[in-house]
Amino acid sequence: AAATAEPPPARAPARVATETARPRVRRLDTQFVALAECVVAKLAPDRSSAVAIAGLDGVPPASVVAPLALAIVARVTGNVVAVDANFRQPTLAERLDARCAKHERTLVDVLRTGSGWRNLVRPTRIARLGVVPGGRISRTSARPVGQSRLEPLLDELRCQYSLILVDLGSLREPHAVEATRYCDGTLFLATLGHTGRREAREAVRAIQRAGGTVWGAIVVDPR
Fold this sequence. Notes:
By secondary structure, the chain is of the alpha/beta class. Helix content is about 30%, strand content about 20%. Helix 1 packs across helix 2.
């Protein structure tokens, strides 16, 4: 469905409770199961899909992406990969209990050098679920080196994975907004009691201007 300039979705947005620390995901709350079913219902039945999840304020998207990935992998056929494109706070691999040695390549290395994604995906403890560790860039960098290489990388992953979940970090980062156009749809996180309607509208418009499609909002209860 086409995105609108009003805070989506028309019906009540999905609401989840998260932990903002870095706990590994050990169990799934029913709220993530329900959210997974909503996402799966929007996926194209005959091709791979890439779904972006980005934040507005405070709550790291990885706290939603990790449990959502666990819930989704049981509801789709084929392999699923979670991509950590949150270059300021890359915690997705850790939350999914993936083993990543310090010397191993990350997504930042691939974007900088243009090297392929082979051997970049790390296995997790869940069958059919892999993760691409992000790597970190400095706070003084306005955008990651080689950001334009993210689109062909996602295209390559589409050939091997039926679903790609992308943690884009904060929509306040220009590279995150730009990257939404490389995905089939974007879900943004709104914090209960903190994110205002004006901020939500601005997020929708920013994604639309970048050429992305808004699938809806996930209201996060940080308590």
